[in-house]
Amino acid sequence: MAPSPTAPRATEVFDQALRMLPRLDGRTVAVTGSTSGTGQVMASTCGALGARVLMLNRPSARADAALDALRRAGAEAELIPCDLQSFASVAEAGAALIAAAPDGLDVLCNNAGVMGLPDTATGDGFDIQMQTNHLSHFLLTSLVWPALVTAAAARGDARVVNQSSGARRGPALKDEFLQRRGGALGGDGFPGLGKWRRYQQSKLANLLFTYALHDRMPRAHADLGVKALCAHPGPTDSGLQEKTAQAGGARLLDRMILGRTLRRAHSVEDGAVGILTAALRPSATSGQFYGPEGRGLPGPTVLLAAERDPEAEARLWSLSVDSTGVADYFGS
Length: 332
Prior knowledge:
alpha/beta
């Protein structure tokens, strides 16, 4: 059963935020999960500001339609096939992205995500939410790192922006969620909390990855202007809730979680302000975290206090390296 339909949300802060963003002529921006939701707003906004947009999506009619929409609006855009549930597909996408950005990649926006899915393993053996939301983005970032360094060397700024969530709050990072235990993590029986715990862990991983990347990138790359930032959208009517419901979110707990989010949600445009700010605002610096300030409430994007956990960040990095098989993360 899908969440109850709600009236379209009025956009309240997007236009003001847009006025604070620079032109992007001559820049290249890559966005995962850009067929709908905040990723589509990110892609279309960057295109309108003059950027060349590389849309990383699974091949589908929806992906083709999103690409056509950007091109009809006058943006220079390309589709790079990328299935985040397959490391092999991510490897192909990374190589294609490097080839498509010979002058460097100015922004990699790791936006794509899935939410509240049953305990299912990907073909690589990992939880479907953790691989889609974190592990594949961890791998993709390493694969395209040389293009980020090229852009920073040429233009003084290049950014990785990870999309977290208010759902990141909860239990501390647990190793098993990053290991090949997809389909064996449990918790999908009554009341069905397991899927939401796996989602929480994947969104926590997005934030921990940002801080770990900020701390571990080579000093020479940081000096060139490579940055790692994170954002969260606040409760957003992005269409993700409907996808969760279609994937089996019919339990009472699922309906309560999805319904509460939609009752509080702001528009998808307002939800995209966090990643737009982190990716494009000139004053944003590496290691920063942007999003609505209120716990579980919509609102304007602000610079949030750091949520550091060095021990968890170190474990997240080590486990992610082991799980993705990255031998030399920064290609040095």
